[in-house]
Amino acid sequence: MVEEVYRNIYRIGVALPGNPLRELNSYLIRGRDRDLLIDTGFRRPICQQMLEKGLSELGSDPSRRDVLVTHLHSDHCGMADLFAGPERHIYMSGVDLELFALSSDPSYSWDTRNYRFHEEGFPAALLEEVYATNPARTEKMPGVDHRFLPLKDGDVLRVGDYALETLLVPGHTPGNCMFYLRDQQVMFTGDHVLFDITPNITNWVSMRDSLGSYLDQLRRVRDLPVRLALPGHRKTGNYRDRVDAILAHHKRRLDEVLVILGDRPGLCGYDIAAEMRWKIRARSWEDFPPVQKWFAVGECMSHLDYHLVRGSIRCEKEGGLRRYYLTEE
Known about the structure:
This protein is an alpha/beta fold. It has 2 domains: 2-111 and 141-246, Ribonuclease Z/Hydroxyacylglutathione hydrolase-like (Metallo-beta-lactamase, Chain A); 116-134 and 249-326, Arc Repressor Mutant, subunit A (Orthogonal Bundle). It contains 11 helices and 14 strands. The chain has helices spanning 45-57, 74-77, 80-83, 94-104, 110-119, 124-133, 135-138, 210-221, 239-263, 269-275, 290-310, and strands at 2-6, 9-15, 23-30, 35-38, 65-68, 90-93, 148-151, 156-159, 162-168, 177-181, 186-190, 228-231, 313-318, 321-326. Strands 1-2-3-4-5-6-7 form a 7-stranded mixed beta sheet. It has a 5-stranded mixed beta sheet with strand order 8-9-10-11-12, with no helix packed on it. A two-stranded antiparallel ribbon has the order 13-14. Strand 9 and strand 10 (177-181) form a beta hairpin. The protein is globular and about 65 Å long.
């Protein structure tokens, strides 16, 4: 469960039971004056027990432990407040910190995040089921406190012999980050670059073109020298090759959307997602778990937004639904 992946940098595997991601890679950097824990897992007893066990094995004292969060998803920040010392710091990008604080406000409505899903034809009954079971809501950190500090692109955190450079790479979330040890050519990729699975890129209310931003950021960081990539989930691999593979994957997805609309113009996002190819253990779209349908439709929306911004498709509102057509020549 605990392994040293680089000098004084340790990976702690935190199981995510019942989730297709399987496990979170939490990383501890041991320094002379403080330890830095990167990402924590869902706010769930089994996750807490596993992370506590790993940190105990490493002899990490919470009184000298800070926490660094790559992005606001609950599998990464769900327990950040539990594992930072009471007088320590919790770092997150200012963009995601602001969004997290907004979503934690009691006045924030689930429908605020999901009105677009209604317009894309996502069945209301399924959205209710997603609301009841989605760990983004049920296993998140309850709020922010005085320990949270915002990061911006280029900020540097120093721990022991290491200087972690903040790379703001919006797309997976509006304030998603990677952290680069430039001298050692080590990259904590978070969920920006994953090797066994492709990061989910969904629509965000605050972003006009989340996929376009994500692809731009992949190109921006592609040529950084990286000898060791430390991802948020599963195994590592060749960094530059994987960036190229993800770029090619989204090119295929974007082409797929155009083919579907060429064959069946006027579909809404829910029905387009049903026609797309997904790597999931389900016999058909009808067998997808509701939360996985929610992720799939969100990803479909980001590809539709990409095309809308570039004028290759158009959207017409019909009966409260968004329907899509290829742009006429």
